[in-house]
């Protein structure tokens, strides 16, 4: 099975207890997807430390152009591309890359690594 949670809800302001959810999933074979769209740059997600299997992010929430995003997939988590064909991104997707969007999102992520949090 797949457990889907939000790290932070943009309408209610609720911030999920990811440590508590992780503890509840201990010993479960379920995969865990955490919607990180509202949390990136605002909350410490600690993806490398948690057993989160998948986490999608949207660049426009951090001032990158609309239409660019990324999907974190934990090493070893199963992943099958929706569309077959093409060799982009290690054969994980087909189609032409959005190079300007990728560059902009890369700049945002570099700013996050430099300590900018983009908090309002």
From TrEMBL:
Task: Write out the similarity annotation.
Answer: Belongs to the class-V pyridoxal-phosphate-dependent aminotransferase family. NifS/IscS subfamily.
Q: What domain of life does the UniProt record list for this protein's source?
A: Eukaryota
Q: What is this protein called?
A: Aminotransferase class V domain-containing protein
Q: Which SUPFAM superfamilies match?
A: PLP-dependent transferases
Coiled-coil region(s): none
Its lineage opens with: Eukaryota, Cryptophyceae, Cryptomonadales, Hemiselmidaceae, Hemiselmis
The Aminotransferase class V domain, residue ranges: 2-115
Q: Which cofactors are required for activity? A: pyridoxal 5'-phosphate
Q: Which keywords describe this protein according to UniProt?
A: Iron, Iron-sulfur, Metal-binding, Pyridoxal phosphate
